[in-house]
Structures are given as C-alpha cells and as structure tokens.
C-alpha cells in the first residue's frame, strides 16, 4: 500500500465507508446529546459504542500492508493531541461541555498501536491471536464492570477514576486486542499484499470516492469534528 497504484482498493473503500459512518454518527450524537433535538435509534447507539472496533481491526490489518508504522503512529497520535487541545479550547470558549473533552480517543489509540506495531509484528501469529483475544476479553470486562481507581493517569488503559469523562474514548483495553486481531487477519487474508477483488471496476466514481475518503481518513476525521460542530451551531 505504498503507492496509489499498489494500494488495495477494498481496504481503502471500507475505511472510507467507515469514516463516513463516523461523520453521520457524530452528527446524530451532536443533535441528540448536545442539542437535544432527537433520540438516537438503537442501531446508531450500537455503532457509536461498538462500531469503532471494526475501524481498529481494519487499522491493524492495514499495518501489515504498509511501512513506516512508527512514523505514521507518531503522526496519528499527534492528530489525537490536536483534537484534545482543540476540545479544551472549545470548553474554555463555552462552546462545549467539559464532559466532551477528548482525553483518549480513537486517534490516540491508533497512534499508540501503530507505534507498538514494530514489536507486535515480531510475535508468531498464534501468540498474537491469543494475546488479542485476552486483551479484548479483559477490556470488555472493564466495559461491563468499570474499574475505578484513584489515579487520574490510568484511563488510557481503561481504568477510570470517579467522574471521568471523555468525548471520544478508545482505551487500550480492549482496543489493542482488536488491533492485534486485525494484524492476524492481515497476515491471513493478504499474505501477498494484493487485492482479493482484482476484477472490480475501480474507475467507478462512487468507488473512487470511497477510496479517496479511505486514503484521507485521518485528515477527514480531524477536520469533521470542528466543521460539523461549527455548522450545526450556526444553523440551529
């Protein structure tokens, strides 16, 4: 996945589809939680809470196909910090409630996982599969029965302190497990790093649009939050 010609189109398209779903979900969340204008359908609540796992799995898969994972991880984590600083600024300007500050969101998690990938890729597939399942199981247990601690610095792991909130929250447990399982999928499905659907019409405008969104998902994610929030605040 180093050049546009060599990229695996179905992964780009799926990532593009997912990032568009994220924009829709965040828009609906803003209208319901912030503006109180609608009640979220059950399927949307499910996507907000659990749909992110698919995005993390896809990122783990993509890590097996690319290069410079450490450098990419630093860039993605920096993008997460931009959103953290921006959310604090929005709170300071009374544009957002303090509960919406992004303390450890999806970009923080993905950046951390990508920086860790040079170590993860050294593990045998069977070990990585077992590790991923254990991390997911422990993380889901934390989600069902939140573990409260006095320290205010363990929330990236999924260990929360009383009154902890985060506008976007992707703790290392279970999501590093999902990322690890994505690595296993990448090794299994794409050992040759070639598309599984070579006969698809990649010149189709709709497909090209989804692929473009997938290739630029980081920038779209960073920009859509202030744009969507700003536009809705202006028109509502």
Offer a few descriptive terms.
mainly alpha, globular, 8 helices, 236 residues
Give your account of this protein's structure:
The chain is mostly helical and 236 residues long. The protein has one domain. The protein has helices at 9-34, 42-63, 69-92, 106-120, 125-144, 172-189, 205-215, 217-235. The longest helix is centred in the N-terminal third of the chain and has 26 residues, at 9-34. The radius of gyration is 18 Å and the shape is globular. The model has no long low-confidence stretch (mean pLDDT 89).
Q: Largest sheet, if any?
A: none
What is the distance, rounded to the nearest whole angstrom, between the alpha carbons of the first and last residues? 42 Å
Low-confidence stretches: none
Percent helix range = 55-70%
What is the overall pLDDT average? 89
Q: Shape, please? A: globular
Helix run count? 8
Please write the string of helix (H) and strand (E) elements: HHHHHHHH
Strand content: under 5%
Q: What is the strand tally?
A: 0
- Spatial extent as radius of gyration: 18 Å
The total domain count is 1
Class computed from helices, strands and strand pairing = mainly alpha
Describe the secondary-structure layout.
Elements: H1 9-34, H2 42-63, H3 69-92, H4 106-120, H5 125-144, H6 172-189, H7 205-215, H8 217-235
Helix pairs in contact: 1-2, 1-7, 1-8, 2-4, 2-6, 3-4, 4-6, 5-6
């Amino acid at each position: 996945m180093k050049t546009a010609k060599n990229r695996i189109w179905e992964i780009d398209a799926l990532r593009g589809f997912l990032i568009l779903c994220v924009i829709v979900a965040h828009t609906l969340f803003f209208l319901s939680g912030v503006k109180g204008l609608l009640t979220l359908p059950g399927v949307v609540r499910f996507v907000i809470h659990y749909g992110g796992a698919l995005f993390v799995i896809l990122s783990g898969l993509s890590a097996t196909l690319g290069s410079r994972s450490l450098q990419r991880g630093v860039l993605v984590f920096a993008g997460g910090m931009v959103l953290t600083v921006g959310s604090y600024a929005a709170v300071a300007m009374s544009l957002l409630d303090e509960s919406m500050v992004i303390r450890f969101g999806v970009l923080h998690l993905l950046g951390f996982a990508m920086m860790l990938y040079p170590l993860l890729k050294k593990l045998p597939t069977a070990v990585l599969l077992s590790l991923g399942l254990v991390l997911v199981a422990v993380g889901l247990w934390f989600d069902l029965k939140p573990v409260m601690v006095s320290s205010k610095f363990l929330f990236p792991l999924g260990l929360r302190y009383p009154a902890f909130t985060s506008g976007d929250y992707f703790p290392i447990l279970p999501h590093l497990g999902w990322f690890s399982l994505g690595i296993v999928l990448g090794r299994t499905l794409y050992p040759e790093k070639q598309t599984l659907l070579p006969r698809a019409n990649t010149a189709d405008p709709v497909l090209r649009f989804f692929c473009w969104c997938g290739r630029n998902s980081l920038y779209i994610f960073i920009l859509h939050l202030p744009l969507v929030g700003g536009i809705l605040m202006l028109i509502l």
